Amino acid sequence: MSATILRRLLAVVLLSLLVAAGAYWFYQRDTGTSADTLQVYGNVDVREVDLAFNNSEHIATLLVEEGDAVKKGQLLATLHRERLEASLAAARAGAASQQAVLARLEAGSRPEEIRQARADLKAAQAKEVDASLTYRRTLKLVAEKAASQQAVDDARSGLDSARANVKVAEEALALALAGPRIEDIAEARARLEAEQANLALAGEVLKDTSLYAPSDGVIRNRLLEVGDMASPQKAVFTMALTEPVWVRAYVPETMLGRIAPGMAATVTTDSFPDKRYRGWIGFISPTAEFTPKNVETPDLRTRLVYQVRVYVCNPDNELRLGMPATVSMDISGSPAQHTLQSLDCAD
Q1: Structural domains in the chain (count)
Q2: Long-range contacts of 228-231 (CB under 8 A, 24+ apart)
Q3: 309: which residues sit within 8 A by CB, 6+ positions away?
Q4: What DSSP state is assigned to residue 321?
Q5: Disulfide check for 277: which of 88, 138, 241, 267 has CB 3.0–4.6 Å away?
Q6: Beta strands per DSSP E along 123-165
Q7: Which of 14-18, 30-34, 136-140, 329-333 holds the top average pLDDT?
Q8: CB 346 within 8 A of CB 315
């Protein structure tokens, strides 16, 4: 073999080694991976909620603007209340009326009603005695040919009517002494419960005319204005929650064995390049996906990666939705060596 051929073979081998080294360097630069540090890229993400009234009515007031920071329980907007206040008053009156009905039935008959029933019975008994005497006298007169048979029949009819009136008076007294039926009291109690439920519902509907912040956050969008018709299907505001904040990043499959949930991480951004935010891995996707377009380079368009969610402590509220971020993790040793004992920004 000539020296020229040997030189050419040596040049090919050296060129191959240089290409391999360059490819390795490019991959390491692209993933930010070194022997002890894994560096990945992503964007700040937060949860958002659409805030809507649980009622349909015209908006009366809007108390916040886009960009305002709000606290949990803060009043954000109100609806007109006049119609619902009238419904609440009607429900309150209905419950009070039925309460009085139940109280009357549970109290039973009044002493005056019982005394009246007894007096009515005595009057009926007195009329019966008078009708009995009249009937007897009429029978004697008929025997003496001093009265007609019609007079006897009339007297008999009067006596029967008087006895029937006594029976009616006796039953009335018995009812007054017994008081209302148990079934009537149960029915009145059930009606009262229904009226009280209507009252509670009217109160809740009236409360729904006020819209409160469900948690701390920042108003992103104000979608309706004063005078618009609100409904449960139409959001009034879109609010970004201030907690939790995380970075949605992507890790190549070859690095999965070097990370684990709870592992410590450090986050930096272009907006605050000298500031490092404490974080930890909170989630690793169980399935692979293609690198998202907003974080890939042209050479990574077909690379499969796994999504990770890195929770970040954001005490000064500097991290904003969509902000590009860099996540660094110490991967020297096993992942357990870098797992945090407490996953809480308050610590």
Answers
A1: 3
A2: 228/58, 228/59, 229/56, 229/57, 229/58, 229/59, 230/52, 230/53, 230/55, 230/56, 230/57, 230/58, 230/59, 230/79, 231/52, 231/53, 231/55, 231/56
A3: 45, 246, 247, 248, 281, 282, 283, 284
A4: T
A5: 267
A6: none
A7: 329-333
A8: no
Residue 20: inside a domain: no
pLDDT for 23 equals 45
State how beta strands 37-51 and 324-330 pair. antiparallel
CA terminus-to-terminus distance, the chain:
72
The contacts of residue 345 (CB under 8 Å, 6+ apart) are 278, 313, 314, 315
| pLDDT at res. 6 | 63
Reduced to 3 states (helix: H, G, I; strand: E, B; else coil), residue 231 is strand
Q: For residue 261, is the peptide bond before it cis, meaning its omega torsion is within 30 degrees of 0?
A: no
Tokens 């009252």 belong to residue: 199
pLDDT, tens digit, 9 for 90 and up, residues 226-281? 999 999 999 999 999 888 899 999 988 888 888 889 889 999 998 888 899 999 99
| Token output for 251 | 């890790």
Output the six-digit token pair for 263: 């592992």
* pTM assigned to the model: 0.62
- The predicted pLDDT at position 2 comes to 60
Residues 160, 195 within the same domain: yes
Residues 277 and 306 placed together within one structural domain of the fold = yes
Look up the domain containing 196 and give its range: 86-204
CA atoms in the 13 A half-sphere facing the CB of 42: 26
- Res. 298: pLDDT tops 90: no
Considering the domain architecture, whether residues 229 and 261 belong to the same structural domain is answered as no
